[in-house]
Amino acid sequence: MLRIGVLVSGGGTNLQAIIDRIEDGTISNAEIVSVVSNKENAYALERIKKYNIEGRCIKPRDYKSRKEFSIALKDHFLSLDIDLIILAGYLVVLSEDFVKAFPNKIMNIHPSLIPSFCGDGYYGLKVHQGVIDRGIKVTGATVHFVDEGTDTGPIILQKAVDVRSDDTPEVLQRRVMEEAEWIIFPEAIKLYSENRIEVEDNKVIISE
Ligand code: GRF
User: Fold this and answer.
1) What is the best residue among 7, 13, 128, 183 to mutate for testing ligand 1's pocket, by most ligand atoms within 8 Å of CB?
2) Residue 7 in contact with residue 82, Cβ under 8 Å?
3) 140 ligand 1 Cβ < 6 A
4) Nearest partner of 153 among 140, 162, 144, judged by Cα
5) Distance 63 CA to ligand 1 centre (A)
6) Which residue's alpha carbon is nearest to atom 3 within ligand 1?
7) Rounded distance, CA 33 to CA 148, Å?
8) pTM over the 0.90 mark
9) Which residues contact 37 (CB under 8 A, 6 or more apart)?
């Protein structure tokens, strides 16, 4: 059984999509062991109550330094024997030390087709605003492993979504979630739980 730890900051709709695929048996070989938020009032922590998933808040402000925060977070997941860490809308930048402790074991979802509209400054609605401002016709979402850079790790899955001429950032954000994020994030976790993902030369190879 793959033991999953999740990091969240907000609403947790991606987390919900993953829980749904575990509940309906699509992902049969994994369990969510712990959900950690950096915000006490994140709705994601509310969502998990009815599934009996352990939730807690670990936030930088409670520690003397970023380093100590990072060690606490790392120790939390290590003590639970976590196999895979999912960033499901997590707005804290992870330290190099944390990322190095879990090589190719941290997955993130980004709401664009990397390498477009990603990297520093591209988060939340800013991504979709950038897409609309540039007038591109196709955007999407990307699931990737997390390395020391911002949105630079090996790409696992991508899915395209059409941009419409009357889209607002909010409308586009919702479509990217519904048509891409909520589909490919659970899919990537399923592949991982089936041991079908390998990384070679910073590239992901998915076996049949
Ligand atoms: C999503 O748009 C995701 O792509 C980004 O953060 C947002 C999280 O939304 N990384 P939610 O908390 O899963 O609803």
Assistant:
1) 13
2) no
3) no
4) 144
5) 26
6) 89
7) 25
8) yes
9) 7, 8, 9, 44, 45, 55, 56, 57, 58
